[in-house]
Amino acid sequence: MPNKIGPSKKSLQGLDFLNLFLADVQTGVGPYLSAFLKASEHWNSADIGVALSTSTIATVIAQAPAGALVDRLYQKRTLIVLGAVFVTIGCFGIALFPTLPVVMGCQILIGVAAAIFPPAIAAITLGLVGRSKFDRRTGRIQAFNHSGNVIAAVLSALVSFVAQKGIFFVIAAMAVGSGISVCRIRYREIDQELARGGGEEEDESGEEAGHQHQPASLLKLLSNRPLLMFCIAVVIFHFGNAAMLPLVGQLLAKGSPSDSIKYLSACIIVAQLVMAPISAIVGRLAEAGRKPIFLFGFGVLPIRGVLYTLWHDPYYLVAVQILDGVASGIFSVLSVLMIADLTRGTGRFNLTQGVLAACIGIGSFFSNLTAGFVVQRAGYDVGFLMLAAIAAVAFAVLLFFVPETKTAKKLKRNQATAST
């Protein structure tokens, strides 16, 4: 049933803390795993690329089914708890038995969990606060998410003084915290119809036309050209983006094996400190339009890739991560909002979230796999330049083929609201 009163303070706090604890949990252990396997287990770059790609393959396969499951089931909180259990098991397995078969198996568990988290969180958020507050709430929860990444990175740096594998126990502990937090969100306050992208469909006059209970067909989604072009842009963007931080981690491990986790934690802390305020700001600015902000975020990535080739000093590499914070902060908010725009009234919001996450996974898979072999054969600088060139293609696709998704009618209504 729809929640006509609005979400309680307890539910909103539960949502905030869920995203705080779920920060490093939902993004997996890729960068840390890369540095850990390079510095402590002495794996080569190709094997590390295969291990990282295993998680993304599992994520790609599970994404669309996970999104459809979130659309269909009312037990969205239970799905998040299940994902947290998968991550906990995967982290313990990697830390205690770091062999190729075990790491690949654990990466599959973590990859499945990564497929569950984004659509489930987006659905709960939309079902709690409604469309009118979705932009700003998305910015807020992403700010909490990035703050959680800072906390996780600091804790990981501290535990690395004792043992580098301690980082996986930190992430497992945060997974447990996320499971506790989601239980604070009250089930009855989630509008289940709205949570899957149905309901509140507007007619031409701008008035609500009531709930749409029958989800749109998959054929209708596939015929949505702006949605298809946006997904292609996302695949290419993550093809250029995903391998950059793991490659930085390998560079740090190669130059300073004993300090690699500390430097990598510093990279993550710098990026996340930038992402937190960027996400909150973007959540507000996005009410006036999506595409110009997104173009800025896409444009930062090729610059970042080129800058990595200029100098390999650890402090310089950490400083370049500021650009990662800008691009990722923008993407984390606007990707959700653009999917909400493109699927409004279809009842397929979470399925499409799953498809988008699959696109991210596809791009990440090719990024890690390709970069690993390129670096093995041609060196790190060639790898970074290749990723920068791919990122430039993503910018061009977004610029020329993806339209603004915030309609003129909504823009006028937002401007009128702001002036009153």
SSE diagram, text form:
Layout: H1 9-21, H2 23-27, H3 30-39, H4 45-72, H5 76-96, H6 100-129, H7 134-159, H8 166-182, H9 192-195, H10 218-222, H11 225-241, H12 244-255, H13 260-285, H14 291-307, H15 314-342, H16 349-378, H17 380-401, H18 408-419
Helix pairs in contact: 1-6, 1-7, 1-8, 3-4, 3-12, 3-13, 4-6, 4-16, 5-6, 5-8, 6-16, 7-8, 7-13, 7-15, 11-16, 11-17, 12-13, 13-15, 14-15, 14-17, 15-16, 16-17
The rough form would be described as globular
Summarize the main sheet: none
End-to-end Cα distance, whole Å, is 32 Å
What does the radius of gyration come to? 20 Å
Which CATH class? Answer: Mainly Alpha
CATH fold description: Growth Hormone, Chain: A
How would you describe this structure to a colleague?
It is a single chain. α11 (225-241) runs antiparallel to α17, α14 packs antiparallel against α15 (314-342) and α16 runs antiparallel to α17. 60% of the residues are buried. The protein is globular. 77% of the residues lie in helices and 0% in strands. The chain is mostly helical and 420 residues long. Mean pLDDT is 82; it is low at 201-212 and 411-420. The longest helix is centred in the first third of the chain and has 30 residues, at 100-129. It is built from 18 helices and no strands.
In short:
This protein has 420 residues and is mainly alpha-helical. It is 77% helix and 0% strand.
Quickly list its features.
420 residues, mainly alpha, Growth Hormone, Chain: A, disordered C terminus
